[in-house]
Amino acid sequence: MKPARLAMFLAALLAPALAAAQKDLRWTEPPPMAGQGIDPNAALAPAWTAWGGHARIDFSSDVLSAYGVKVRPLGAARKADGLLRLPVHAQGGLDFKVGGTQFQGFTEGSLQLRGGIRLTADGRTLALEHLRLLPRKSDNWELELVDAKGTVWFVNDHVHYQLSPDRTQIEMFNMDLRASPALARWLGDPVIEGHTVGAMALSAEVRVDGSVSEAMKSCTAPNWPNTPGAPGGGLWLADVLLTNSSSIDYKRCIDCSGPSGATDGQAVFAPNATLRNSNNDNTAEVPWYAKFSGYRPPYNNDQHPFLIWNLYRIDAEGRLEQIARSGVKHAFLTTNTSCNDPTCGSVSGSILGRHCQDIYSSGNNDSNTALGPRSEIVPALGIWGRCGSIYDPDCNHAANNANVGNFDHRLIVRESQIRPNANPGAGYFMESWYIVRDDINIYNTMGGRDVEPTFGSTWQLANVSGKPFVQGPFLSRWVDPANPGPNAANVELATQEGRARVAVRASQLGNGNWRYDYVVMNYDYARADMERVSVPNQPQAEVYRVNRNFGFAAFEVPHASAGASFDFSDGDVDAGNDWTATHQNGVVRFAGTQGNALNWGTLYSFRIESPFAPTTGSVTLQPLDAGSPATYTVNILVPGSAMFANGFE
Hints:
Blueprint: H1 3-14, H2 40-44, E1 47-59, H3 61-64, E2 70-74, E3 78-80, E4 83-87, E5 93-99, E6 102-112, E7 116-121, E8 124-128, E9 132-136, E10 139-146, E11 152-157, E12 160-163, E13 169-179, H4 181-187, E14 196-209, E15 240-244, E16 248-254, E17 266-271, E18 273-277, E19 286-287, E20 306-314, E21 320-325, E22 328-330, E23 351-352, E24 357-360, E25 371-372, E26 377-378, E27 383-384, E28 411-414, H5 415-418, E29 427-435, E30 446-455, E31 459-463, E32 470-471, H6 475-478, E33 488-495, E34 498-508, E35 514-522, E36 527-533, E37 543-550, E38 552-558, E39 565-569, E40 580-584, E41 587-591, E42 602-610, E43 614-623, E44 632-639
Antiparallel strand pairs: 1-4, 1-5, 1-14, 2-7, 3-4, 5-6, 6-9, 7-8, 9-10, 10-11, 11-13, 12-13, 13-14, 15-18, 16-17, 17-28, 18-24, 19-23, 20-21, 20-22, 20-29, 22-25, 26-27, 29-30, 30-31, 30-32, 33-34, 34-35, 35-42, 36-37, 38-41, 38-43, 39-42, 40-41, 43-44
C-alpha cells in the first residue's frame, strides 16, 4: 500500500470523527411557554458582540493526509485531542443581531485569534498568523478565516448557533471548514476548492449594549401539527421543505486508489442541507428536540426529524440505479434563520418556526453521535424506536454510547461505481430528504443536484455547472409522472403503511425486442411491528420499540411466455445479495429475502428484455412480512402478449 493511502486508511480507523468541533447542544433548551408578543424594535435594539473565548479547529486527517499535509500550532495555539485550539483576543469583537430568542446573523467586526497554524507538505510551509474571523461579505451567516494581509484561507458555513439562557455566552459550532481558492492553489489541487477540509467551533462571551429583557421573553405558544385553531377553522399542518444542498463533501476512504487504481476503495460522502418551514396560513411549528432531551410537547417525547441521502447513477443506456445510501441522521437543533417574523419566528432552537430556515453542515451530517440505522425508524409515521436502539439498547431511557465508527451508517460508494472509465457516459445525482412526523407532503422534503465524480488527491462529487438544486424526488426527473413521454410511466403506490413508486421506460431494440427498465422506489413503506413501552414515573411519555420495519421482498411483471431475459440491480457490487429472477405461471418474478429486502429509502432496478411491445397492465409488489393485504398492485406499462409483438394491435 502506498504511504499516502496507508495514512488515509489508518486515519480513517483511528482518528476521532470531528467530535469536539461538531457537537450537540451545550445548553438544554427550555420547554416552550406562552407569552406576550415582542416589539421587534425593542427586541432587535441592543447591539450584541461576541468577544474573547477560544476557537477549535478539527482538520480532517482523512483529507489532508491525501495531500501529505501536516498541521502544527503556532505561538499561543495548542493542539490537544486532535484539535487545534486558538485563544481569542478580548479586545474588539464580532457584532451580530438577535431577534426574540434567535441569532439573526453577523453585521460587522472581527475576532482576532491568538497564535496561528503551520501547514507543511512536500518541503513547503504555509504559516498562517494573525488570523481573524470576520463576516463574509457575500453572506452574513458565514465567516471567513483571513490572515494579516486579508487573504481568505478558509470559509466557515452551515454554522449552528446557540445563546446561553442568560444571553452571556454564544456557541458557534458544527461549522464546515472549506478550502478557499488560495488554499486550493497552495495545495495544487483546484478540485478541493469549496470542499470541506475539517470543522470549526467557537465559544465566546457576549457583550450587550442595551437591555435584553424584551429580547429574552418568549413569544406565542407553538401551533402544533394536527391541532385545531388554524385560520378558517381547520387544523395546523406540518409542511417542511428541503430548499438546498449546496455541496456533497468527501469525508474519508478505505484503500482508495483513484480513477485508474488497482483497488476498489470505499469512499464516504455527506451532503449539507438547507430546509425551511412553509409559510401557509395554516403552517404548524415543528418539534426539533435532541435525543434524550425530555418528554416534550406535542408528542410527549424527544421528537425530531430524520435525514437520509442517496447517490444515483444513470448509465449510458438510461438505466437508473441507486449505488449508495446513508443511514439516518438524527436532527437536534434548528437555527430558525431568515424567518418572516425575525422576532417571534420561533420560541426556541428546539422548534422550527413558521417560514424559518434551518441548516445542517456536511460535517454535522457525518457526526458519529447523530447517526443510526434506518431499521429503527417507522418512516410513514416519522417515529423512532428509541427503546432498543443503538443509543438505548437496554431500554433504560438513558443515552448510551452507541460506538458508531467512522464508516458506520454512512453513504459509502465503491470507486468502481464512479470511475469514468468504468462507467462511460454515466450521470450522477445526490438526493437528500427529511422524514418529518405528520408532514403533509413527503415529496417537497426531498431534493438534490447533479454531481460529477472528480479526483485530485481525493475523490469529490462536484456540482455540475449550470444544473442547480432541484426540489422533489429524483425519480420524477427520470420519468415525470405528469408528463412521462412515450412508452414510460411513473405511478405512486399510496397505502396506510407508506408510499412507493414504480416507474418504467420501454425502449425498442435493434433486434426487434423491447427493453423494459423498471425501478421500484420505496419512499416510506414499511410493514412495521412496533410497540409503545412504559417509562417509569412518566405515564404520558410516548416511547416506542421497533421490532421490524421491512419493505418489499418480491416484484412481479406479467409476461405471456418464455423468451425473456432478466437482470436485477440493487446498486452495489455484491452479486451474492441480488434478487433471483424466474419465469413461471405467466409472470417474471424477482424475489429477495430479509437480508436484501427493498426497505424504505431504497431503489432497486429490474430489467426485462422481451419480444412483446408495451401495453397497459399491472405489476405486483409483495411485502416481506405477512399481513393484509398480502400483495399490492400498480397499474403501469407491461410487456404485451404475442399479438402486440410489433407494437401494434
